[in-house]
Amino acid sequence: MQRLAPALRQDNVPLDLISLIKTILAATKEISFRVSQGHLSDLMGSTLDENIQGEVQKELDVVANELLKDILLESGFVKAISSEEEDTSVAGEKDGKYLVSFDPLDGSSNIEINSLIGTIFSIHEAPSDMDASDPDMFKQAGNKQICAGYVLYGPSTMLVMTTGSGTHFYVLDRTHGGFLLVERNVQVPTDTQEFAVNMSNQRFWQAPMQNYISDLLAGDTGPRGKNFNMRWIAAMVGDIHRVLTRGGLFTYPQDSKNPKQPHKLRLMYEANPMSFLIEQAGGLAMTSEGRIMDMQPNSIHQRVEVIMGSKNEVEACLAYYK
Ligand code: AHG
Ligand code: MN
Ligand code: MN
């Protein structure tokens, strides 16, 4: 098994990007340790605060955010960061080459039940002609990402990452504190008989999604002629990890539950990085209108519809919208 840095050099990743990735991973190792301590870390509860999106912050959301923010802003590599838990972008080094967007703790509702959570990150190059405090620097499409990944705090802590030459799996080896490459060029199977969606929102979906999911549920007696299995972890990191490992379709479709918020997942630090990982593994990552990574972002916390995973199944779903 190969260590992280030599594996990245093999993909011709520039040294300062490798250093930035190692900086992010230093924070995730600390988050991983605190997560593994569970109740012993005294971080299992909620704070009294809400983030800018009106969600109550868990103590672990805040700690994970501070750990990542501090280490990145001190690193010298980063011109600015943006995070789910920050109202707007935060300036770093004025000549920093990179921008990092992150979801410090994805799947927060799983914290108290000792279930899957993770950290998601996305890296863009920083425009050299803009001020470090200008949040507009982040309005770059997902197709301009130079690196994306997540760290999954499961029974083992795993890093799943791409720098544009395939999606690779690494495992944190606690005996020496490094991430080891365990699977290079992961491939999402083209076909699947498994889907992931929060079924409790079914009545709020648009007609095409209602029809598509009904046809999956009809199984081998319905128009698809085969049975489908369903899974929902309530943490995108967990669901996407399963899709990368054995295939599947993951969706958080548009819904009318809260008319002011038709979409749930965030473009910059959830949908875009996961799209980069899925596409680099041969899958598709779409909205019902087009490729997620081609969307021109209009704000840091923008939300977006997500339909991603096994290529043929994503295409089968999108056919209902035509
Ligand atoms: P976060 O914990 O960062 O706010 O993200 C949670 C997201 C995503 O990870 C997950 O797929 C989805 O919300 C779960 O939504 P439901 O609560 O509707 O199941
Ligand atoms: Mn999230
Ligand atoms: Mn989060």
Largest beta-sheet characterization:
9 strands, mixed
Tell me roughly what share of residues is in helical segments: 25-40%
Query: What structural class do the secondary elements suggest?
Result: alpha+beta
The order of strands across the largest sheet is 1-11-10-9-8-7-6-4-5
What is the tally of helical segments?
7
Question: What ligand species are in this complex?
Answer: 2,5-anhydro-1,6-di-O-phosphono-D-glucitol, manganese (II) ion
- Specify the CATH homologous superfamily of the largest domain: Fructose-1,6-Bisphosphatase, subunit A, domain 1
pLDDT < 50 runs, ≥5 residues: none
| Number of self-contained structural domains | 2
Work out the number of β strands: 18
CATH architecture of the largest domain: 2-Layer Sandwich
Within the CATH hierarchy, at the fold level, what is the topology of the largest domain?
Answer: Fructose-1,6-Bisphosphatase, Chain A, domain 1
What is the CATH first-level class name of the largest domain? Alpha Beta
Distance N to C terminus: 46 Å
As a percent range, the share of strand residues is 25-35%
The dominant shape is: globular
User: What's the gyration radius in Å?
Assistant: 19 Å
Succession of helices and strands: EHHEEHEEEEEEEEEHEHEEHEEEH
